[in-house]
């Protein structure tokens, strides 16, 4: 029996067959088990002899079974490994990576320029109090200049900020009358405009504010000229035109010489040679006073520029809506590579 069992075990080719054989010999009703059971009918002299023999056979069979079992497992592992080989020399599949949004890039560039000039970067809430968006900027309720910016109101007192200028007031209050104060604030602003190629109900501004002793219009002009040259090239010219904002006096609008035509007049600048990029002025004494600064002792300038405007000029983008519709073919063009 031992010989025939060992012979069968060695010929088995599948794990399932091996299991069948194990049952056949060593199972509860297996041949070897039956032999052991039959030992009761043997004489006392025969019993140890037969017992030892049966044990020997069982050990031999068990060894054969587990040897074969191990061989099957190894074969299965080997088959798995060889079917799953990885060729590490193959080129990898490209992982599609996002690119930095052009507006974020422009904001970072502008921040870097002003940080280089000693400005700090501030932030303020997009859902703003009427108090900061208007009143602290010398625009009391019913002031006609409120109509300059059509506002999304949340409640009577709460609105979506129409400009980043409320951060001027917030920053001044935080500084508690201390000088120098030099900050810029990038952020989203909202106005009830109908969207078209040059208007968006939500767009981006960067506010700037400087307060110190003896700050004058020349500081404003020098700062903006330095900015324009770092942003658009060494020979860039700017032009200041008188304008009006309730929170600055005097107020100006600042134009960039059109770099498309060098100031000679073209489609981009509507034949004027100049392109408006921001509003600015000397901080109104009332605004200083309301925010805890003494206009007899200190003065300041402020400006607010449109980031989309600048991005459109720099990258020759013709429709502001491209920045918001997130067509990856548009966005990928700004990949730093
Ligand atoms: N807040 C003004 C606007 O949105 C721009 C501005 C900022 C003007 C600071 C003067 C000083 O039109």
From TrEMBL:
Pfam families: Phe_tRNA-synt_N (PF02912), tRNA-synt_2d (PF01409). The keyword Repeat does not apply. SUPFAM superfamilies: Class II aaRS and biotin synthetases (SSF55681), tRNA-binding arm (SSF46589). It catalyses: tRNA(Phe) + L-phenylalanine + ATP = L-phenylalanyl-tRNA(Phe) + AMP + diphosphate + H(+). One of its GO terms (cellular component) is cytoplasm. It comes from the Bacteria. Its cofactor is Mg(2+). It is found in: Cytoplasm. Its main location: cytoplasm. Transmembrane segments: none annotated. Belongs to the class-II aminoacyl-tRNA synthetase family. Phe-tRNA synthetase alpha subunit type 1 subfamily. This is Phenylalanine--tRNA ligase alpha subunit. One of its GO terms (molecular function) is phenylalanine-tRNA ligase activity. Binds 2 magnesium ions per tetramer. Tetramer of two alpha and two beta subunits. CDD domains: PheRS_alpha_core. The keyword Zinc does not apply. Its EC number is 6.1.1.20. InterPro entries: aa-tRNA-synth_II, aa-tRNA-synth_II/BPL/LPL, Phe-tRNA-synth_IIc_asu, Phe-tRNA_ligase_II_N, Phe_tRNA_ligase_alpha1_bac, Phenylalanyl-tRNA_Synthase, tRNA-bd_arm. Residues 104-333 form the Aminoacyl-transfer RNA synthetases class-II family profile domain. Keywords: Aminoacyl-tRNA synthetase, ATP-binding, Cytoplasm, Ligase, Magnesium, Metal-binding, Nucleotide-binding, Protein biosynthesis. One of its GO terms (biological process) is phenylalanyl-tRNA aminoacylation. Mg(2+) binds at residue 249.
């Amino acid at each position: 029996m031992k010989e025939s069992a060992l012979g069968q075990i060695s010929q088995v080719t599948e794990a399932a067959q091996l299991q069948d054989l194990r049952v056949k010999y060593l199972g509860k009703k297996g041949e070897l088990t039956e032999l052991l059971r039959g030992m009761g009918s043997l004489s006392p002299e025969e019993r140890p002899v037969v017992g030892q023999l049966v044990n020997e056979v069982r050990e031999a069979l068990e060894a054969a079974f587990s040897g074969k079992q191990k061989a099957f497992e190894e074969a299965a592992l080997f088959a798995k490994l060889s079917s799953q080989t990885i060729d590490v020399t193959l080129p990898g599949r490209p992982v599609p990576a996002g690119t930095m949004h052009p507006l974020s890039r422009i904001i970072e560039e502008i921040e870097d320029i002003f940080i280089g000039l000693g400005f700090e970067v501030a932030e303020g809430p997009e859902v703003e109090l009427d108090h900061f968006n208007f009143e602290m900027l010398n625009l009391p309720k019913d002031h006609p200049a409120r109509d300059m910016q059509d506002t999304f109101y949340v409640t009577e007192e709460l609105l979506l900020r129409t400009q980043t200028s409320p951060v001027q007031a917030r920053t001044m209050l935080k500084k508690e009358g201390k000088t120098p104060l030099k900050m810029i604030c990038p952020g989203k602003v909202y106005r009830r405009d109908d969207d078209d190629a040059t208007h968006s109900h939500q767009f981006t501004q960067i506010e700037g504010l400087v307060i110190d002793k003896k700050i004058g219009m020349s500081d404003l002009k020098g700062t903006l000229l330095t900015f324009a040259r770092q942003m658009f090239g060494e020979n860039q010219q700017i032009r200041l035109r008188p304008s009006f904002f309730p929170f600055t006096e005097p107020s100006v609008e600042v134009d960039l010489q059109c770099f498309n035509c060098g100031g000679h007049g073209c489609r981009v600048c509507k034949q004027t040679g100049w392109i408006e990029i921001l509003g600015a002025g000397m901080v109104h004494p009332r605004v200083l006073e309301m925010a805890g600064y003494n206009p007899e002792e200190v003065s300041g300038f402020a400006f607010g520029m449109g980031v989309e405007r600048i991005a459109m000029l720099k990258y020759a983008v013709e429709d502001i809506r491209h920045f918001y519709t997130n067509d990856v073919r548009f966005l990928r063009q700004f990949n730093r590579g």
